Amino acid sequence: MGTTVVGRLAPPVRRRSRPWLALGLGLGALAVVVVLSIAVGASPTTPGQVWDALVAPTGAPSDVVVRELRLPRTLLGILVGAALGVAGVLMQGHTRNPLADPGLLGISGGAAFCVVLSTTVLGVTDVFGYVWFAFAGAALAALLVFTLGAASRGGPTPVTLALAGLAVSELLLALTSAMVLGEGPSLDAYRFWAAGALDDRGAALTLQVLPFVLLGLVLAIANVRALDVLALGEDSARGLGQDVTRARLVGLVAVTLLTGASVAVAGPIGFVGLVAPHVVRSLVGPAHGRLIPLAALVGAVLVLAADVVGRLVVRPAELAVGIVLGIVGAPFFVALIRRRMVKL
Amino acid sequence: MTGAARLSAQGVRVGYGDAVVVGGTDGLDLDVVDGTVTAVIGPNGCGKSTLLRTLARLLVPRHGHVLLDGRRLDAVPSREVATVLGVLPQDPTAPEGIRVADLVARGRHPHQRWFRQWSADDEAAVAEALAWTDMTGFAERTLDTLSGGQRQRVWISMALAQGTDVLLLDEPTTFLDLAHQVDVLELVGRLHRERGRTVVMVLHDLNLAARYAGRLVAMRDGEVAAVGTPHEVLTEDTVRDVFGLDARVVDDPVAGTPMVVPIGRHRPATGRTPVITGVTEDAPG
Amino acid sequence: MSAPVAGRRPLRAGPVSAVWRPRTAFVVLGGLALLVLVGAASVGRGEYPIALADVLRVLAGAGSRGETFVITQLRLPRVLCGVLVGAALGVAGAITQGVARNPLTSPDVLGVTDGAGVAALAVLVLAGTGGSAVGLLAAVGLPLAALVGGLLAAALVVGLAYRQGLDAFRFILVGLGISVALVSVTSWLLVLANVQQASLALIWLRGSLNARGWEHVVPVAVVLVIVLPIAIVLAFRLDALDLGDDAARGLGERVDRSRVQLLGLAVVLAASACAAAGPIRFVALVTPQVSLRLTGGSRPPLLASAVAGALLVVTGDLVARTVLGGEVPVGVVTVVLGAPYLLYLLVRRTRKDSA
Q1: Which residues of B touch C250 (CB under 8 A)?
Q2: Do the interacting molecules here have an ipTM over 0.90?
Q3: From the candidates B109, B119, B143, which should be mutated to test the interface with C, based on the most C CB atoms within 10 A?
């Protein structure tokens, strides 16, 4: 018993924070994965063909592949990665919990459930139709998690949150599969979408969800000061004059927009929201003004890198980006727990 | 050095990770005198609990060994040890919602088998242990409904039900107020007087240790600094040596055992001159 | 001579002795009676409904040949499979929660269910592409693969989480991480499969008693007959383990060895349940806690959990077939009941912690 401190980030390791170095590294890595994402794929293309396609397209097959498939896919990856990375920062900040992640806490699951509901039961087909369902699902799940967080004074422990996320995800998954079972076509669509992928989405789709992601990012940046104060605990934040309820609301809306939009367009993709904030925090420390932009950058790099890896490992087939991240992210998660980066 | 003591430490050196906590230079020797109450005292971090846990086989020494009845502790099956040597850890945890009688009965574990979980012997031992600690009336209460002092009585009752000749108690009085500390130590004293049990306990309060233990072991930096009766160990020199504290040692006005009074710097303005030596006038018989 | 101890009435015969716990006995016997009724009702349900009395008559060995065939060959295996799988899950959960001293743990958290799922799916997708010969292989190989997969995943979780003793929370989180990775592999396999396989796989993955025959019943029955007695013998050690590491060692218990042995039993039980019926989630989490509340002890009771598990699975299957209709897997019902219960436990805990 006694006074075990739970649900806190491990005491920050004193190390020099180097935001510019981190920014440089991040941009460099992004450049590399963008080039790879455009140059690498199932149909072999030479660097010359890729260059021609970008600067002087002639309508050759390789031009179509690069311009119609790989370029939009790359942009989508950046968008989704940035959204999920920032959503992770917001969730970890608001729950004061190092294991918070839109996927682990069932928020992606909520969005996914409502998307499947709208497509199978209500027959909604275009993204503009079901993105609203994704938002509704994400918002409900996020509300549940935030409420559970508010039920305890010191914030929920990582285990409580993780198990709550598990319960919500399992429940929604069971209901989702009950809906698609016995429905050949929707089951078929579901299993591909549920893997979390960036291919075959098209440029139009990216443009359609872009406003939502941008709005989410703006709200996240507006949330920065509040998050820094909330890191000291809710009581201290109130003492410092912070309107906690409003800050939470802004955070909730931002998480909903970012997660809902990315799930609607790419399916549930896990671990980006967990890994990106941790990587950035280890480089630049806990200030949210730096965390948020850099987490967006790192999230984009992670998603694109995973997508490129997915295109390479089982050629000529592809491994969906959500699967790659699930397999690679899990060891990271386990290592966090084993190395006691997280106080239990 | 090795007398007829049933329990003794022979050149033990114990540590966690790289740090050696007990017996740093050339191992620690200690004989636990049979049929007495021994209190291990010393400043924080001197290795008191580590020593006790080593004697109780909860820690395995890196060098040396603990002997029980002439046999190395690690060579005797743990269950067999448990019929001779009982341990009450510092912060034991009880399952949620357990009832007093059920917890005390857990003390019979070393005597039981899966098919023999409540023999007549078990029942007699538990009934007696409850009666002895005045907890019979609480048998059907759950532990969560009891006060801290009552809970400690239950744990001691459990150790008693184990029926061991030697009992090791790791800070049995922490988290208790003074009245309950005395209550628990009275119980320990009776255990020794009426049952002839050998008790080793770690205590923080020097005056209570002197009062209730027949033998003190003072530790400093993982070594035994002094062993003997309270009068032999609790001298002004030893207290300064071991605790780094300037103190007067006077006779306890009630029991006549040594009593440590820190000198310190602060003097409340009472207008009375402090008593330097001897017993105060108004001390009862 | 020996004064009786209040609340611990002895039950003795020769060298054998135990404490008489009327409440537990009542819960177990009452649960069994209820199980027979629900089981019989479930057997009666189907394309040709058979009245409860007739079902009981056939089970007693006095029915017409037609009824006897339908019941013993077609319907009984399904219900028996549910009973055995539920019992195995209940016991596995009770052991896991007892060892971890935590109501939030279960074999699901140890990775058993997801490991079994991945392995079974791999067989279904990678081996099940050929003709009937391969199909036969799948019929035999799938339960076996599920068993092996569950055991391997649990070994991985235990290996990664065991570190200077067992911390329930570390177990839960490591198990969760491994689960997520396994679920990713699952969705990959789903993508690889053709539509028929995927649909089959999705049903299997939810945990279902559809089309279960004697060939599914016998392996779980064998495992239970072997493992349950061992579990009852070893569970005695929990009496000491319950009190924390130091106290347990003081009482002469070899803590780490006992825990690993007990967890091993739980994993074998849960994995063989998965092999028979697919991962029926939350049964192992919920039933030990419900049984604990009913029997009023300090630790989930083994036998009562077994009965409660069987009752939950059989009732869930009956509900899935009659109320929801169609081929809704029983696992959907258990999740719909179990997930809110887990949330309730979490909220209660959180409230209490901050109180």
Answers
A1: 56, 58, 82, 85-89
A2: no
A3: B109
